[in-house]
């Protein structure tokens, strides 16, 4: 059987891609430590999806983390690696592509950044989101990582000296893999799921599968290219409610939170002091805050807590600046604050599925409880992944969603899924 390493630059990316394999009956392991000890793997573990948490890092640190992980995987017998990239083109895409190419000593790779199921396509080497160039979409307005260009080749070229060759839709068979002695990224246009399947068949025929790159959409075609060990899927568990913790400020998430509120969710906002961890508080004051929040959450079976700015009040950015915090500090502190809230709710006995929007948010929770691994169970809607982990003798069920993914009613879909589930005869 084949072994594949998936390298994602954030946690939701690792989950989004890993779940594509779970849907094929392939048991995936999702890990948050790029220094992962491959000696922990069992012989039957053929699919490992790792978050390097490099999207907000410097280009050099991103390269070093990805290179180290890929080298260790190769030594451990992983013949194949898939560099998962953001379909909105955020992060250190060029540096991370080069890192895996260097680690696996590859002169050329195929890069397929389209995700047609989410209306994200590649045409003429440009990335389009819902029919508009990505730099004009919500990703161009991202307060932390705005995408400045829609030309994928220019984005990669701004980070590395990799040669870029654009391959038009349908011309995949014509790729000349030996056309240059320079390290080359073949950037493949694609607009439909059928395109992705055709590309996968072509790359298999050409034996160009050692290193590939793209988003979660193309990963769903790996079952056509490689042979994996398959087994029983992991199981869902009964849940008394849904707690949604939203650390994203993406407009897509803003609309989703509003839809949840309109659909009957109890909604609350986290204050600037709480979400940014600013202010002097005694342990007793902290305990009372979490006790009161627990009472509020457990008083309903659908609760959403967001970190969005409240109209008419000071923005988080202005508040942070006034207190000496930089813009880059905001996202990490929000993730830490929401992660702490999730931990405190679980500690108080909350038997809810906890949804966390934004890869940093779930990472914040896992950092607080000291866990580095979980297993994906199923996908809810578009891009929301339900997973499970064990901690302190408890099996905790979580849902992770990127801020830029999902239908407007995604939180309603989550609630319906976890509330309507009744335990059957499934085994873990």
Question: Percent helix among the residues?
Answer: 25-40%
* Biggest sheet architecture: 15 strands, mixed
Structural class: alpha/beta
The number of E-state strands comes to 18
The share of residues in extended strands comes to: 15-25%
Quickly count the helices: 13
Euclidean distance between termini CA atoms: 22 Å
Q: Flag low-confidence runs.
A: none
* Rg of Cα set: 21 Å
Q: Averaging pLDDT over every residue, what do you get?
A: 91
Strands of the biggest beta sheet: in what spatial order? 9-10-5-11-4-1-3-2-16-17-18-15-12-14-13
The shape, in one word, is globular
Summarize the structure.
By secondary structure, the protein is α/β, with parallel strands linked by helices.
Write the layout of secondary structure elements.
Elements: E1 4-8, H1 11-22, E2 29-31, E3 47-51, H2 59-75, E4 80-84, H3 93-103, E5 108-112, E6 120-123, E7 126-129, E8 132-133, H4 152-157, E9 163-167, E10 184-188, H5 193-205, E11 211-214, H6 216-219, E12 242-246, H7 251-262, E13 266-269, H8 272-276, H9 283-298, E14 302-306, H10 316-322, H11 327-347, E15 353-357, H12 359-369, E16 373-380, E17 384-391, E18 394-401, H13 410-420
Parallel strand pairs: 1-3, 1-4, 2-3, 4-11, 5-10, 5-11, 9-10, 12-14, 12-15, 13-14, 15-18
Antiparallel strand pairs: 2-16, 6-7, 7-8, 16-17, 17-18
């Amino acid at each position: 059987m084949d072994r594949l390493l998936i390298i994602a630059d954030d946690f939701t990316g690792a989950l989004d891609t890993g779940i594509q394999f779970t849907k094929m009956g392939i048991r995936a392991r999702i890990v948050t430590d790029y220094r992962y000890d491959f000696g922990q793997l069992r012989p039957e573990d053929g699919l490992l999806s790792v978050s390097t948490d490099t999207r907000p890092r410097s280009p050099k640190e991103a390269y070093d983390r990805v290179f180290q992980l890929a080298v260790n995987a190769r030594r451990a017998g992983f013949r194949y690696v898939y560099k998962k990239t953001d379909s909105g083109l955020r992060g250190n895409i060029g540096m991370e592509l080069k890192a895996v190419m260097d680690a696996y000593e590859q002169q050329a790779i195929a890069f397929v950044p389209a995700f047609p199921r989410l209306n994200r396509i590649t045409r003429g080497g440009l990335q389009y989101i819902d029919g508009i160039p990505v730099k004009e979409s919500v990703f161009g307005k991202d307060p932390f990582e705005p995408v400045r260009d829609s030309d994928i080749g220019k984005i990669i070229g701004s980070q590395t000296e990799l040669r870029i060759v654009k391959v038009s839709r349908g011309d995949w068979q014509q790729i000349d893999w030996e056309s240059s002695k320079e390290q080359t990224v073949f950037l493949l246009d694609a607009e439909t799921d059928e395109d992705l399947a055709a590309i996968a068949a072509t790359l298999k025929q050409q034996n160009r599968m050692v290193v590939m790159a793209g988003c979660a959409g193309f990963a769903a075609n790996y079952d056509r290219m490689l042979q994996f060990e398959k087994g029983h899927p992991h199981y869902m568990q009964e849940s008394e409610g849904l707690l949604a913790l939203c650390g994203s400020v993406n407009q897509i998430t803003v609309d989703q939170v509003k839809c949840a509120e309109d659909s009957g969710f109890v909604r609350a906002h986290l204050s600037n002091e709480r979400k940014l961890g600013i202010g002097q508080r005694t342990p007793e004051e902290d305990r009372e805050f979490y006790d009161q929040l627990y009472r509020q959450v457990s008083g309903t079976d659908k609760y959403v807590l967001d970190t969005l700015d409240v109209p008419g009040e000071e923005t988080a950015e202005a508040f942070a600046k006034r207190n000496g915090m930089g813009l880059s500090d905001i996202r990490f502190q929000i993730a830490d604050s929401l992660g702490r809230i999730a931990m405190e709710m679980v500690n108080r006995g909350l038997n809810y599925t906890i949804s966390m929007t934004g890869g940093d948010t779930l990472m914040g929770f896992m950092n607080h409880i000291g866990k580095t691994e979980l297993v994906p169970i199923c996908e809810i809607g578009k891009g929301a992944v339900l997973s499970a982990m064990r901690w302190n003798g408890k099996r905790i069920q979580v849902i992770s969603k990127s801020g830029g993914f999902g239908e407007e009613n995604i939180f309603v879909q989550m609630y319906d899924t976890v509330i309507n589930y009744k335990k059957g005869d499934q085994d873990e």
